[in-house]
Amino acid sequence: MKGVGAKFKAKEWSDGAKIATQALFETQNFMSPDNKVWLKHIGGYTGYIELADALQDIYRVLSRERDEELGLFSTVDSLLDAGWVAD
Questions:
Q1: Quick one: pLDDT at residue 12?
Q2: Residue by residue, what is the 3-state secondary structure of the chain?
Q3: Ranges of each domain in the chain
């Protein structure tokens, strides 16, 4: 696990936000007209995972502003642990 939020543990999202994020990735029921799965970070960042990556269980978070990689996570749990949830 590496990237923005990989060591961030000051605050946490609600259980509901975490469960909704888990369910979204488990069911792959993405509503994505722009081919992106949008995420928000507990520290105020916004990012996305390309839909093609999400469908292959690749959790590579890219910056909303610059399209640069913010983190690559091996599981949804590691994504959640790093402070990211579906937006």
A1: 86
A2: CEECCCCCCCCCCCHHHHHHHHHHHHHCCCCCCCCEEEEEECCCCEEEEEHHHHHCCCEEEEECCCCCEEEEECCHHHHHHCCEEEC
A3: 1-6+37-87
